[in-house]
Amino acid sequence: MADTTSTPTTAAATTSRATIASSASSSATTTGKTVIDDTVVSKVAGIAAREVNGVHSLGGGAARAIGALRDAIGQRDLAQGVKVEVGETQIAADIVIVAEYPVPLQQVADSVRASVSRALEQIVGMDVTEVNVTVQDVFIPGDDDDDDKKESRVA
Question: Which alpha helices (H) appear in the chain, and where do they start and end?
Fold first, then answer.
């Protein structure tokens, strides 16, 4: 959400939005500020994390179950599994991932950290102080399919 007026925001508004001061390159007389909601920052981080090879999904078990329902009705939550803290000039992010088996977990976490940091700096335009990655689960391909194909142990 962009706010191009020069009026100050209330304290409540600044806690949920990033305000970025920028200089106008096209005209020296144009002034204003850009306000970016925390939800936008969370979505950018979520998209960047999902692009990393070895990441199966984001969020804990309950979040993934709700996410599956949202996907079924066509309303995917791109910020699922992402928490951000946005200050005046800096961002901190916490990402919860499910990694694919057998990828090296530390390598996936490092790649997620780098991808999220790069995306937030490039797209949002703010410094990233930290990106914490929690590997909450490991997805094993075919694990869910095997439950339906198991033979009965009793006749």
Answer: 11-15, 38-50, 61-72, 105-119, 143-149
